[in-house]
Amino acid sequence: MSEDTIEEEQLRVLAESAGKEAVEPILAAFWTSNDELVAQLGAALKDRDTDSAGKAAHALKGSAANLGATQVASTAKDIELSAKGGEMDAALSAFEKLPREIAETKAAFDTLMSSIG
After folding, report:
1. How far apart are CA 108 and CA 7, in angstroms?
2. What is the pLDDT of residue 3?
3. For the domain 8-115, what is the CATH superfamily, name and number?
4. Where are the domains of the chain?
5. H helix intervals, 2-69
6. What is the pTM of this model?
7. Is 1 a residue whose pLDDT tops 50?
């Protein structure tokens, strides 16, 4: 896992201020939303629907950035810009990286949450 997978400090500060118990449901909601957005994004890309793909990627980017999932946010931004620019092959290529990045992000969040008292 690379250092740029997540912004650890962002989640750590949230956990320290709100409590670990408050962060766990936030992460659960993030993963549910993430799964829905990735499914919408995949369908839009498959249909070559640039508008829907751009909107789903934008939502994924914002959601990921809010929790410090920097790698997923960066890839979602690449997909968004490619889709909005009509470069669907580039968007699809970036989308293919998401499953690995999401798995790395989940692992990083799990490791971080385990380290927080």
Report:
1. 10
2. 57
3. HPT domain (1.20.120.160)
4. 8-115
5. 8-18, 20-46, 50-67
6. 0.92
7. no
